[in-house]
Each structure stands twice: as C-alpha cells, then as structure tokens.
Design a protein that fits this description.
Helix content is 49%, strand content 17%. The chain is built from 13 helices and eleven strands. The strands form two sheets. A six-stranded antiparallel sheet has the order 4-3-6-1-2-5. Strands 10-9-8-7-11 form a five-stranded parallel sheet, sandwiched between helices. α12 links the parallel β8 and β9. It is elongated and about 80 Å long. The two termini are 27 Å apart.
C-alpha cells in the first residue's frame, strides 16, 4: 500500500510540472528570458493545481483507498492557497498591457480570492493553524448572514467557473497557441477532472440505480440523537468496513436537499441495510426528525480508512470516543461481536451526562459475547455519577489499561 502511495505522489508531481516542462523546452529553443520563464512557471503551475482541486473534490475511490477522503479534502484546502499565491505572483510578474486575455485572468483570480476568503471564513474551522480574529469573524458572519450550508457549498462551487475562465486565459497566451501538444495537455487537465466532477455531482445522484435507497427505520435514540437505517431500492448495498463513512441526501421537503457525510454506525454483518447515527446540530441534521420510513434517499459510500480492519491486526484494541464520536466504534463493536469475538477491547466514552449514552443495553450484550470487553463511560457534567468523572486523560487510560504498548488506539470525537 505504501509503495503505491509513493508512486501516486511521484506521478502527481510529474503531472504537476509537465506543462511547464513543455513550455520551458519551447522557450529555451528561442533564448531563455528569466521573466518569461517565471511567468510560465507560476501561471502554469497555478492552473494545474486548480485542476487538481477538481479531481480532489470528485470523491475518487482510488485516491480515497490510498489516502483517505478526509486527508484529501484537507490537502485540497492547502493547494488552493498555494495556487492563489502562485496566481498572484504571476499577476505581479506580468508587465504586459491590459488585453482581452489578461482580463480573463483577472476575473478568474478575483473569483478565486473571493471564494477562498469566503470558504476560510464560513466553511473551514482552521487552515494551517487557528487564528482568533478569523474565528471571531466567522462567528460574526455566521450569526449575521445566517447562510445555510447548502448555499455555502453552492458558492464554493463557483470555483469551477473560475477554472473555466482561467483555461480560456491560458489558451489565449501566445506560447500556448503556438504549441499544439501543450494546448492539448492543458485542455485535458481540465476536461478529465471536470467530467469526474460532473459525474459526482449529477451522474451518480440522478442516474445511478446503485445509489438509490429507501429509509427502512427511524430510531430516536435521545432527544437530539437519531439513527436512520436504509435499504437499497435495487440490488444490494455497497461493500464497507466498520468505521467508514458515507454521503447521504434524503428526498423529503422538510430536509435540506444537499448531501452530507456521516459515519456508518451499522456493521457489514447486518445484511441488506446500512445505518447512520446522527447528533442533531446543524441545518441538515436538525431536520432529520421529519424523515419518514419510505422516504427515498441517495447514498454514496463507502469512504475513509478509520477501521481496525484496515490496519495490521492486533488482538487488543482501545477505542476512545468523545460525544457523537462513538458512531464508528458502534460499527466496529457490532462487527467484533458477530465476527471477531476473541478481541480484547476497552471503550472509553466521554459524554456530559448519562442522558447522552445511547445503546446501553447493546454495550452490556458486548460484554457477554466479546472475549474481553470493558465499557468505561466518563461523564464531565454529572457530579453524582458513581463511575469515572471529568475528561478522558492519561491517568484514566492507564488505570484501565496496564500494558498500553500492547494496545492499538483509535480516537474519534
């Protein structure tokens, strides 16, 4: 797996600098001018990074398998910043007069900066590090504008239009117009990710039967935690390992129509269905009370690498959950109960009070079937509780696990 990952990274670097290598070869044939070379390097590299952005948000299963979709989305944020910086440098180096071609570049750059700032303020909790001023502005804008999540996503997708405009800007440049190979490669760099992007946004949602599901059960776990179970309309459910996640959108007029990611809380041993357990916190999840058995749903999965089955097998596992972070461990424990009962498992779950603990009877059943299972709730806001109080820390972990080095640890909060 690691060798394949390194190969993908190496191949990506080759693709990243291939357009510039062709450009440099053409330029060096007619004499090397530093400003022209720098213009080409920053401009072509910025364009290539922006096209990579489209590829990263197309939910590619191959890339997810080797890197994990959550990591790819974080990387997507980083390269967006680098691409905008390179575009600004390209703009500063360009000493040509304004023209039809440069106006396209200016429009694209303006959109990139505007969408980038909007995304940083409204959609990202942190980039490279937390900035208190940014946190303050985010809260102020969120409370003032009250923009719903689906509208944020729609605004963020304007980036695709900017990449189209940027492509026109580049194709109008004389060094590109004079080289058919470079021109073709630059067009392909946009077309291939764009087709994958359209398939992800439209093709799978409206035309793929394997993504069509129906709500088969609605379980109210607590006053703000709900479990939804789905069964496929056609054929069987997708393959998944416990701990992975999926994307879901539900056809119900009371629920926002955009898709959202949720951890799968069911086990693949539960044939014919897949389930999610959700804490109602946002625009989408707060409306899940309105979901009814029989509602149609679109489900896209599975994604992610957070599963003990995807790592080197260990007989001793420690799961540490905070709040609704229990969901991947529900799936893993249900799988262990059905298929892997010889495991030694410690589960530490941090919640505010006992009212937030779901599936208590099921946890008791795990103790009866799994060879060595210990469930340790840790309550932070219940002084009358007889068990562990406060927060999960090193002292509590060592109290329940004598030989820490023998265990593989999985943390989700």
């Amino acid at each position: 797996m690691k060798h394949k990952r390194y190969f993908i990274i190496l191949f990506s670097f080759i693709l990243l600098f291939l357009p510039f290598a062709i450009f440099f070869k053409d330029q060096s044939a007619g004499g090397i001018y530093l400003n022209s070379i720098l213009l080409g390097f920053f401009g072509l590299t910025a364009y290539t990074l922006f096209t990579f952005e489209l590829l990263l948000v197309s939910k590619n299963k191959f890339l997810d398998k080797h890197f994990g979709l959550d990591k790819l989305y974080r990387f997507h944020m980083f390269i967006a910043v680098i691409a905008i910086v390179f575009s600004l440098i390209h703009k500063l180096l360009n000493n040509q007069r304004d023209s039809f071609q440069t106006q396209f570049g200016d429009v694209a750059l303006t959109i990139f900066i505007a969408v980038g700032v909007f995304s940083l303020l409204m959609m990202v909790s942190r980039l490279f590090f937390k900035v208190p001023l940014v946190d303050y502005l985010r809260k102020l804008l969120t409370n003032t504008l009250k923009i719903k999540y689906q509208h944020k996503v729609l605004l963020h997708n304007i980036m695709v239009i900017a990449i189209m405009i940027l492509l026109v800007h580049i194709l109008l440049a004389s060094p590109v117009r004079s080289d058919l190979t470079l021109e073709t490669i630059l067009i392909l760099y946009f077309v291939i990710p764009f087709v994958l992007y359209l398939y992800n946004k439209i093709g799978k949602v409206y035309f793929s039967k394997k993504h069509k599901y129906v709500v088969s059960d609605v379980i109210k776990e607590t006053n703000n935690i709900i479990t939804l179970k789905f069964k496929p309309k056609f054929g069987k459910i997708f393959d998944y390992t416990p701990g992975q996640f999926l994307y879901v959108r539900i056809s119900n007029s009371e629920v926002p129509s955009d898709e959202h990611p949720f951890t799968i809380s069911s086990s693949p041993t539960e044939e014919g269905l897949v389930g999610i357990t959700v804490k109602q916190l946002g625009d989408f999840s707060n409306n899940l009370d309105n979901v009814n058995v029989g509602d149609s749903a679109y489900i896209d999965g599975s994604y992610g690498n957070f599963s003990y089955l995807k790592k080197d097998k260990s007989d001793k596992l420690c799961f540490i959950a905070g709040g609704i972070g229990i969901t991947p461990f529900l799936g893993m424990l249900r799988y262990i109960k059905a298929k892997d009962t010889n495991k030694s498992v410690k589960l530490l779950w941090g919640v505010r009070d006992e009212s937030e603990i779901i599936c208590m009877e099921e946890f008791k059943s795990f103790s009866n079937i799994i060879n060595d299972f210990e469930f340790i709730p840790v309550l932070s806001n219940d002084p009358n509780y007889n068990g562990e109080k406060g927060f999960i820390d090193e002292e509590k972990i060592k109290r329940h696990i004598k030989n820490i080095s023998d265990y593989d640890f999985y943390i989700c909060g």
